[in-house]
Amino acid sequence: xxxxxxxxxxxxxxxxxxxxxxxxxxxxxxxxxxxxxxxxxxxxxxxxxxxxxxxxxxxxxxxxxxxxxxxxxxxxxxxxxxxxxxxxxxxxxxxxxxxxxxxxxxxxxxxxxxxxxxxxxxxxxxxxxxxxxxxxxxxxxxxxxxxxxxxxxxxxxxxxxxxxxxxxxxxxxxxxxxxxxxxxxxxxxxxxxxxxxxxxxxxxxxxxxxxxxxxxxxxxxxxxxxxxxxxxxxxxxxxxxxxxxxxxxxxxxxxxxxxxxxxxxxxxxxxxxxxxxxxxxxxxxxxxxxxxxxxxxxxxxxxxxxxxxxxxxxxxxxxxxxxxxxxxxxxxxxxxxxxxxxxxxxxxxxxxxxxxxxxxxxxxxxxxxxxxxxxxxxxxxxxxxxxxxxxxxxxxxxxxxxxxxxxxxxxxxxxxxxxxxxxxxxxxxxxxxxxxxxx
Length: 439
Description:
This protein has 18 helices and 7 strands. By secondary structure, it is mostly helical.
């Protein structure tokens, strides 16, 4: 005899009426059976299931091509982003998918004319050989493009265009994982990945970098300290507002911190940080003074005003490059400064859980693979924080420059600048004050 739970499968009672609910082709189907009698509801459910079984998969003529499905998937992605849905992609991810699935991109010219049900792992493998292998692109680029293709197939399965078991991208990934288990692939992957930990700075180099930033401008000093002491990403620095800075009661208040709540990745609109969660790293006393000086210079700006007015792309292409050149250091990125913060704090004995929470790493595996680099040749015992110090104060105390900063020498042919009156010229603003060039 059939059990009661099995008899009532896919049936839900709401009030006095029975409803039919079931996932069909990746979509939730809900129908009112318009009856309060269980036996009638079971009979109507069976009839409805038979009809759904006939209409479960669309006819072959209704399966769209990859190009049409890609346009629909991108439109659905834009709708989710515009409506502020929680399932919407981040701005950077949405931009990458639009570039990958554009009409003249690396995917649609090869697969756009094919129907979705005609694309299997063998077809994707031929595309992978043409676009990734023969053109010498990195394996990471191939994986990113496969993510874009999977987005189209996932959209098609959710709309009932394909069977739920049709997953050619997953089959191709399994083949690639089996082929990549070689020594040569691992060596090539390490060469091309450009991990952030490969550019970790030493404490003495950090001291020179901070001194150069201080000589450059007040904004440069704030940017460098936010990156190297607090581990903020470039988009997080570009999206930091004055209302996110917690000054506390003064430079000795241990609660001084910054709340990383928003970011501007690639200069787009403000959105949540990469992890999607707010974090609150402490700030050192010297960063507190730098932020306070910049705030006084701005005449106490509003809480929603940006701390750093420099454009997102100029932060790395102009500001950081100038500071590195002034400090006599090779090229480094904001990710390298972020890795420096993580590596040195852990090397000095700061709790890894605190470092992960302050910097915003997803987990320790990510930090260990991409960011943390320890120098075991010069081991030193864990440092002890002084009373009232935060971990960022410890970082500032141990990373002071021991050698004077060497400013770039002025060319002999360059005209000398004579300052007139009370006006003092800043190197970053040659039009500041009344000046006259003399030979």
